[in-house]
Amino acid sequence: MSITVKINNTGVQAESIINMLKVLAEDYDFIKILDNMEELPELTTDEYTKRHNYTLEHLGEGLTLNEMEKKLYPNEEV
Fold first, then answer.
1. How far, in whole angstroms, is CA 63 from its chain's centroid?
2. From start to end of 1-78, where are the E strands?
3. Less Cβ crowding at N or C end of the chain, within 10 Å?
4. What are the respective helix, strand and coil percentages of the chain, to the nearest 5?
5. pLDDT tens-digit series, residues 37-58
6. Do the Cβ atoms of 70 and 28 come closer than 8 Å?
7. Do both 57 and 78 map to the same domain?
8. Nearest to 3 by CA among 23, 32, 29
9. Pairs from 34-41 (Cβ < 8 Å, separation ≥ 24)
């Protein structure tokens, strides 16, 4: 299994999460931290392509961005 997490924020919470992941990576060899998106292995690029193509072929499935934001943040104006 491969999961990519991209954090676009440099706030205190984001730094805390990044530090937590770095500590976990020291203890668990199956966790890898890449500081640069250009460092992604080819397999990951292939996975992105596969997911992108699947999305294009199944546009009617799932939630729109607005629907997802309303679901994630029900008490906020989005």
1. 17
2. none
3. N
4. 55, 0, 45
5. 665 666 677 888 888 898 889 8
6. no
7. yes
8. 32
9. 37/6, 40/4
pTM (predicted TM-score): 0.43
Q: Give the type of residue at 63.
A: L
Asked whether residue 1 falls in the same domain as residue 32, the answer is yes
Distance CA 18, CA 22 (A): 6
Identify whether residues 52 and 32 lie together within a single domain: no
**Amino acid at site 40:** L
Number of structural domains, the chain?
2
Q: Which two tokens stand for residue 36?
A: 């640069």
Note the Cα 68 to chain centre separation in Å: 15
Q: How far, in Å, are 50, 65, 67 from residue 62 at the CA level?
A: 17, 10, 9
Does 51 share its domain with 68? yes
Residue 32 structural domain:
1-37
**Interatomic CA distance for residues 39 and 15, integer angstroms:** 20
